[in-house]
Amino acid sequence: MKRSIIDPLVELVMLIRGTILSFQFSKQWFVALLYGVMCHFIFMAAVLVMLLAMFFGMSKSYGNVPHPFSYLSNFLLLLQFPLTHSFLLSSKGRKYLFYFSPKEYSKTLASTVFALLASIQLFLLFFFWTPTEILIWEASGTSFFLMCTLYACSWILLVWASIDAGAELQSGALGWMSLAQNKVPNFPDLPTFGLFRFIRQPIYASFALTTWTTPVWTADQFLIAIVFTTYCIIAPRFKEKRFEKKFGGRFTEYKSQVPYMIPKFYLKNKF
After folding, report:
1. What is the DSSP string of 37-63?
2. CA spacing 20 to 30 A to 75: which of 28, 29, 206, 229?
3. Pairing, β 216-218 against β 135-138
4. CA angle 96, 100, 102 (to 5 degrees)
5. pLDDT of amino acid 1
């Protein structure tokens, strides 16, 4: 049975509905709710800070580390996300997610903890970045309208791709809502519909696009764009190795027909 772009939203709504109906005065339910509130609050804060910080070319962040130590602090802030993010996704790193929640709930909450930690990392990076104040280019007039439009479209693509991949997993909702309902998390299947029909890594591609479509360009923004684009090109290779083990021939066939990040004008097969 083929899936449509509506199916992930329906599944999310059903998961939310099940969580609301499962309400009870129990330790497990309130632990689940606590992790859910923390995860989604910090997730939204991180997205908002990231969106605004890059819109201004990283020139309005709140870091205030004196020169020249600001270069070191920015360098550490910039590297901590891709390195830690990749490590926690690895087979060795995933076990460390269990240390951030009560032992009896750690496996179920692992995906929520992962989203929570990733959100904290992004918030730290974009909020505490110390601006260099080296301006390269600032859009104005028609170019400002064009760049703002491209920036908005990049974010829309990122949200769309995240929904296609499973909004409940990408947002961290899957773990805590499954715990609230006292069930094993049902992870999304291999996404081959929506934006995944055109490229295999639309989340990483659109994430990279958000770094290149800002209306203000500074040395800071250029560095952010270079590092995150490099990460977005390399990191999915490791993700695809995990998919090959998990989905076997299904992913191999999908991989043979759908390009990595640059869409073709035609597809050999429609998924």
Report:
1. HHHHHHHHHHHHHHHHHHHTTT-S---
2. 206
3. antiparallel
4. 115
5. 52
Chain-centroid distance, C-alpha 80:
15
The Cα–Cα gap between 48 and 53 comes to: 8
d(CA 58, CA 98): 34
* Integer Cα distance of 84 and 121 in angstroms: 9
Helix (H, G, I), strand (E, B) or coil at 184: coil
The mean predicted confidence, pLDDT, of the chain is 93
Q: Which two tokens stand for residue 159?
A: 């949200």
Distance CA 125, CA 227 (A): 13
**Angle at which helices 219-247 and 69-89 pack, to 10 degrees?**
10
Q: Nearest 5°: CA angle at 57, between 47 and 172?
A: 15
* Tens-place pLDDT, residues 47-59: 999 999 999 999 9
The proportion of the chain whose per-residue pLDDT surpasses 70, expressed as a percent, equals: 96
% helix, strand, coil for the chain, step of 5 = 70, 5, 30
CB within 8 Å of 170: residues ≥ 6 apart: 115, 162, 163, 203
Tokens of 157: 């693509």
E strands present in the chain: 135-138, 216-218
Global pTM value: 0.91
- Cα dihedral 98, 20, 166, 186 sign: positive
Q: Over the stretch 170-209, which tens digit does the pLDDT of each residue have?
A: 999 999 999 999 999 999 999 999 999 999 999 999 999 9
